[in-house]
Design brief:
2 copies of one chain form a homodimer. By secondary structure, the first copy, chain A, is an alpha/beta fold. Helices cover about 20% and strands about 30% of the residues of chain A.
Chain lengths: ~270, ~270
């Protein structure tokens, strides 16, 4: 495990439907960030507001068999960067709102969003397994996507599985999340990197305004970096991933040890 | 269920060991508050920093057989108020850091803190069951005590069981909680009333500074009322308990319905 890493969060506004353009920008910005880890927003290769499932399917990317995903792997390899980004993932006749972690050696892990927001339910298939922690030399990485933030169970599960850094590609339209992530960091003692997009999309009967203000929080809830609400930004922090192993609050409290799971059974049902 | 109620949070600083004095103040302040519900801080009948378990035992109150608890019931009855307050609870040879909900009809429900903070572990027995929701005419009430806030499982369980209002007697010395309760309110869509004490206690080798800033938050995370950090305060809000039944975020999201408990199994172990 590296002692210290440079973790960046790259907020930008994709042009809807321009997958090639977005991938080019991902390459350009990742190169510029010169970081061990970069996190991009949700659905950054495509834009957010699909007219229907068919349109989403046409802009989706097959992880194992597409030039687009091969290009993304190439970016991680060429820039020696762990790359996290959201994209519409095609898998047979299914399409997921997914996040990839691509390592500099080209290894890929995928998380498929399990809790879909609003009309995403009409576009995507819901994810089919719980998010997993990926062990890397820059720390144990957990991914969650946008709306997952409101379910404390997700970040908690990742942290219990040893995550140091929660990478959180987002396309936020509500105003709660950035504030609430303070709790996610401190209740779990983890770094959280919420990478949001900004800008406006109007492709259906409604206009969506994304809220920017991407942020990096420490395990103690310190705001290490924050972007503005309406512009391209590369924000970063030099962090020590192992800081997230320390769950000590007082001489007598390790707050993960203090949990009493025998009383948490209610969480297993709706 | 009443449509609207007046909920108050009464922040004060007890004199250590003066149980009679504290109960008198509880009577005086509850009368003054003229509310349907009042919440007092944790361990408000005794003060916080016991020298040892023996001292705590000597200041503890037996719910079923003591003049002190009979007096507290009398206050609820006389003032027609639902009273929530923290106290050291004696039960045989055990002593718990407990919170009572006493109804105007004299009915009593107790929650015994299950997650103890710091030296409380040397003083108290840990609670022996999960907190429960109590159905009343002023809403479904859940109680959690101070440090319980850092375990999202507690507030979540209460909300899933239908709590409208989370009453949260506290003696906070750290600075995280008031900020983090924003997440507790919005992730669960519940009212939260964090009643903290203020002031300094120095009874052992350390000095404790309590942080005040008691607060009432709406299910949407709106700060309805907040006390200062260093003075007696009665803060209140006129709230509609049934607002907490509404878990709708968008036309397609009821965020409790959206939970995927099949993926939350990790929470059942440490």
């Amino acid at each position: 495990l590296k002692t210290e890493i440079k973790a960046s969060c790259i907020q930008f506004c994709p042009e809807f439907g321009d997958t090639v353009g977005s991938i080019n920008r991902i390459f350009e910005l990742t190169t510029k960030a010169e970081s061990d880890l970069v996190v991009f927003p949700e659905l950054i290769t495509s834009g957010y507001e699909f007219k229907d499932r068919e349109e989403c399917f046409s802009l989706s990317i097959d992880v194992s068999n597409s030039s687009e995903f091969a290009n993304l792997i190439e970016i991680a390899v060429k820039t020696h960067t762990y790359l996290v980004l959201g994209f519409p993932e095609r898998a047979g006749d299914q399409v997921f709102n997914s996040s990839a972690l691509i390592s500099p050696s080209g290894e890929t892990n995928i998380y498929r969003k399990i809790q879909l927001f609003d009309r995403e339910k009409e576009i995507f298939d819901p994810g089919d397994e719980a998010p997993k922690v990926i062990k890397t030399e820059i720390g144990n990485i957990g991914m969650m996507i946008c709306f997952d933030w409101i379910f404390p169970e997700i970040c908690r599960s990742l942290a219990l599985d040893g995550a140091h850094i929660i990478c959180h590609p987002s396309n936020l339209v509500l105003s709660y999340c950035q504030r609430a992530m303070f709790a996610r960091s401190v209740e779990n003692g983890v770094f959280t990197i919420t990478c949001n997009r900004y800008g406006v999309e109007r492709r259906t009967d409604r206009q969506l305004q994304f809220t920017g203000r991407s942020q990096i929080l420490s395990p103690k809830g310190k705001l290490l970096a924050q972007a503005s609400e309406n512009e391209d930004s590369i924000i970063f922090a030099n962090i020590r991933p192992a800081d997230a192993d320390d769950k000590k609050l007082t001489d007598l409290n390790q707050f993960f040890e203090d949990r009493r799971p025998e009383f948490y059974q209610r969480l297993q049902t709706k």
